Amino acid sequence: MTTTRSSPLVPRSDTSRGARKVGRFFLSELGLIMGRRRNQAGLLVLAAMPVILGVAVRLTESNPRGDGPPSFVDDIVGNGVFLAFAALTFELTLFFPLAIAMVSGDAIAGEAHSGTLRYLLTVPAGRTRVLIVKYLGIVAGSFIAALTVTVVSALVGILLFGTGPLTTLSGDQISLGTGLWRLLISALYVAVGLCALGALGLFVSTLTEQPIAATVAVMIVTATMWVLDAIPQIAWLHPWLLVHHWTDFAELMRNPPDFSGIGDGLLVAVGYAVVCLLAAWARFDGKDITS
Amino acid sequence: MPPSAATDEFTDGAGDRLVGAALGSALAIETRGLTKVFGAQRAVDGIDLQVPTGSVYGFLGPNGSGKTTTIRMLLGLVSPTDGDHEILGHPMPQELTTALHRVGSLIEGPAFHSHLSGLANLRRLDAADARSDASSSERRVHEALDRVGLKPAANKRFRTYSLGMKQRLAIAAALLAPRDLLVLDEPTNGLDPQGTREVRHLVSTLAAEGITVLISSHLLGEIQQICSHVGVMRAGQLVAQGSIEELRATQTAQLVVHTPDPRLAAEVLTRVGVAAVRYEDEVVTGEPGAEPPERISAALADAGIRLRRFAIDRPSLEDLYVSLTGEGFEVRS
Amino acid sequence: MNAPYSRRPWLRWAAPGAALAVIIAGSQAAAHWPADAATNLPPRTAAQLLTDVQRAQPTALSGTVTAKMSLGLPDLPTSGGNPTDPLTLLSGTHQAKVWYDGDRQARVAVLGDSAETDIVSNDKGLWVWQSADRSVLHVAEPSGAKGFNAYGDHARSDDRARLPEQLSTPEGVAAWALKMLDPTTSVTTTSNDRVAGRAAYELVLAPKTSNTKIGSIRIAIDADHHIPLRAQVFARGANKPAVNVGFSSISFTKPSASRFDFTPPPGAKVTTPKKALHAAPKAVRHDRLGGTANTELPRVVGKAWSSVLVGKVPTKPAANTKDRSLQDALKLLPEVSGSWGHGRLLDTALFSAVITDDGHFAVGAVQPATLYAALGRN
Q1: Does residue A12 fall inside a structural domain?
Q2: Which one in B99, B313, C13, C16 has a CA-CA gap of 20 to 30 Å to B31?
Q3: CATH 2.50.20.10 placement within chain C
Q4: Which superkingdom (chain B) (predicted)?
Q5: Mean pLDDT, chain C, whole residue set
Q6: Residue B256: which of B311, B316, B315, B314 has the closest Cα?
Q7: Is residue C181 within 8 Å of residue C53, measured between CB atoms?
């Protein structure tokens, strides 16, 4: 509303002012997200998962090689850093999407539900600016979640299993430094994927005034995409699914690292983010706030 | 333009003020045919609201008459189906940000983040304002809290506040920046008489500083004494609007005389210029118009008429309000 | 009005709609762009092309080979993540990375889902690494032999451009197809094809007989380096290949020498068969096909495109779970019977196969009726 509706006759454009003042609004939003008990508990659960995984593997060291889905779990015993890769893979299926669904549900639907949205808009915060700041909050949440899990699980893994050079999928070994570097790239890649889901969540959040409904809707969409991605008969659809490339950071564990999966994943993520953010804007900018 | 508080602090707002002033609008709020249709229901049906600058405008109407929808349209929360409006001379919604920065508002009761303190909630709202000045933020937040008497409870969580405190925090939020217009939707809703008096006092203090106030209520009695102007909504339409005096003037005073000599009394009254004189049993009524009551009573006494009761009844605004909006409950669907 | 959509809220939806349209159109354009790029090659006859291929010098390259199998088989669930499981390779899409130094060092990495099989040929011998079970098979050159020359010379005399995984590279499949060339086949060429962004000729082999399921085999040959870039097998009447093996990207710069280094990682199970070097590739293949080769020798019935392989499968099924699941899979096939006996039929786009209840089998790129006839002659 601020950027698109301002009259050209008004000398100062709202956009430049808005951009200058987004910083303070964003910090306030970040404080709001991180200050919620629910989000703090959620982050704790995310960080606890790799600890549970690590301890479980440590206790059952025998490590039988089953016919289950491939993962890094088998490699953890050899090198604790793999606990971080395993944790990222593991949490991507449910816990990360749930965390993002919760934060994005709060973003617009939560504010509408509690009535604070009408005060934000009459402050006036500007509708487009509210969306931008809300999305930046989700983006920050995505990176905080992914990096927290990565750091905690790498530390716990190293503590429990020790570390050293990493054995890649190609059978070659890479130094610990290179391995940690690739781990960081993996974590950032996971975060970008979550940001795209967050854009979808933000759009859903503009559709309802019930934050729980938005959260559930995002989880249903995510679960549906995982299911569709596992059905080989619709392989043509797979490249269009947001989650299809999510675990492709495993390709970094080849030698040389294969970035093509990550590259495709980033393109898909950007595509989802752009379309969903524009849809969120289209919905929110014209929405009647009656709550 | 009212003398507004601390204008120099908002140097970048001054230009906008000039734009507003240059348009020469003597109306703080003006709507033309403002209409909102929800589905098949015309919630607001082509109203022409005119809130003069510097006035305290009582926006009256029973619950469900379209007041809140109108206020939401004024503030850009709801897009009008038809019609247009200006706030402080700024066409809406094109200059929404510029206009709303000078408008403090309270819409349908207070709403804040319950896990944050009152202070933190106000800081958040100030941070959200694209035009507020970061360096003066702390001072303005504390001043606003002080103004509504919430300083002692500033650091308590919002969820621990009483209803009155919540209402006052919402008013504090409306006062975060220097305002030219306050839009207060039912600010006394749910308050005890003491709280209602406090809010009334605060509003009249603010109005005395030159801030235009639009205050809505479904009870005329709660705000009548502080209003300079009144608009009455009924079923989505603005059925009356004007200054208190103008509205009073539309009301005709009634002369009522109780006497055992009604026929004679009627003759005397007609003679001294009382209009529409009628009598029935021992009661004579008429419209005294501009005739001073003492002259009428003297004339009756001179004629030797025995009086049991002599009164000039001036109907209250409440009577007018009831006659406009109907009595009791009214449910529209 | 300055805001065109303040009274037409739906106008805003044009923004996400347009973005979606651009993304879909862009992805389609990107997928077809290399094929649309203009190439302008002078025509060449089949003979010229074949000569080119014969004369081609081994060239250093690295690239990605993509194999897409559309045989009409149901997609089998990938088990254990081993990307070189032969059952898995029969369906779906597979990728392998290939590096070749133009001489005798090569590396093929078959990519699986979080798994990888690497075949490395370097001066220490041949290595096969499987990440799924962390196993290494190492076939070293006999001690005292100078370097890897024995294998290298052998390879060179036989086929200079031979790579270890002979049949899964375009070169391998093309070589196999070239052997099929005889009067039963019409050979034509097309120019101005494009594979992996490179200009290429195409050699088209079409059976002259109609008694085969194969419609044509098309082999794309790089216009500069004269090496096969892609091989496609079309079923009769189909316009999409049933088998499509080719480079999806290729570069002719020499890979760094370290690409061909291989040291078994700590914790890997290393097996070193004590066999003569020349037997090594066969041993590898033997191992990978599951050791069923030593039973009754199969025979070929019929000629060329319509030939049928007839034989007998080992009577006692192996006890491991994979073979048992194979038995279960067999039960899902339709039952057929005739004068030749009773059995089950696998009918795919390119070939069909019959396994009789008494353990005989017949397989060929032909209609089932031809198989029954071959069995009947048994």
Answers
A1: no
A2: C13
A3: 46-289
A4: Bacteria
A5: 75
A6: B311
A7: no
Cα dihedral sign for B318, B324, B325, B328?
Answer: positive
Question: What is the spatial distance between Cα B89 and Cα B6, in angstroms, rounded to a whole number?
Answer: 20
Provide the 3-class DSSP secondary structure of residue B192: coil
Report the greatest alpha carbon distance in chain A. 74
Tokens, residue C81: 């993540």
Give ∠ CA A229-A231-A234 in degrees, rounded to 5.
85
Average pLDDT over residues B165-185: 92
Tell me which chain C residues have a C-beta less than 8 angstroms from the C-beta of A278: 15-16, 19
Say which of A70, A78, A274 has its CB closest to residue C115: A70
Residue with tokens 């080719």: C246
Greatest mean pLDDT range, C93-102, C272-281, C316-325: C93-102
Longest dimension (CA), chain C: 90
pLDDT at A215 over 90: yes
For C52, list phi and psi in degrees, rounded to 5.
-55, -45
Single pTM value for the model: 0.81
pLDDT digits 0-9 by tens, A125-150: 889 999 999 999 999 999 999 999 99
Question: Based on the number of CB atoms within 10 Å of its own CB, is C238 exposed (0-12), middle (13-18) or buried (19 or more)?
Answer: middle
pLDDT tens digits for range A27-56: 999 999 999 999 999 999 999 999 999 998
pLDDT(C186) > 60: yes
pLDDT at position C185 is 82
Mean predicted confidence (pLDDT) in A172-186: 94
Domain of residue A244 covers 20-57+69-285
* Mean pLDDT of the A81-99 span: 94
Mean pLDDT over C73-81 rounds to 54
| Residue A13 belongs to some domain of the structure | no
Distance CA C4, CA A4 (A): 10
Contact between chains at B94 and C9 (C-beta distance less than 8 A): no
- The answer regarding whether domain C46-289 maps to CATH 3.40.190.10 reads no
- Give kind and range of the element (H or E) at residue C62: strand C61-69
Pick from B293, B286, B290: nearest CA to B265: B286
Tell me the percentage of chain C whose pLDDT exceeds 70. 69
Is A274 in contact with A195 (CB distance < 8 Å)? no
Q: Does A125 touch chain B (CB under 8 A)?
A: yes
Whether residue A25 lies within 8 A of chain B, CB to CB, comes out as yes
Residue C278 pLDDT > 90:
no
If DSSP states are collapsed to H, E and C, what string results for chain A?
A: CHHHHCCCCCCCCHHHHHHHHHHHHHHHHHHHHHHCHHHHHHHHHHHHHHHHHHHHHHHCCCCCCCCCCCCCHHHHCCCCCHHHHHHHHHHHHCHHHHHHHHHHHHHHHHHHHHCHHHHHHHCCCCHHHHHHHHHHHHHHHHHHHHHHHHHHHHHHHHHHHCCCCEECCCCCEECHHHHHHHHHHHHHHHHHHHHHHHHHHHHHHHHCCCHHHHHHHHHHHHHHHHHHHCCHHHCCCHHHCCCCCHHHHHHHHCCCCCCHHHHHHHHHHHHHHHHHHHHHHHHHHCCCCCC
Domains of chain B as residue ranges with CATH: 7-242 (3.40.50.300), 254-314 (3.30.70.100)
CB of B17 less than 8 A from some CB of A = no
Domain count, chain A: 1
Record the tokens describing residue A88, joined without a space: 């990222």
Task: Provide, as residue numbers in chain C, all residues whose Cβ is less than 8 Å from the Cβ of A236.
Answer: none
* Mean pLDDT over the full length of chain B: 84
Q: What is the pLDDT of residues B118-134, one digit of tens each?
A: 999 999 999 998 788 88
The 10s digit of each residue's pLDDT in A156-178 is 999 998 888 998 888 888 999 99
Confirm whether A7 is domain-assigned: no
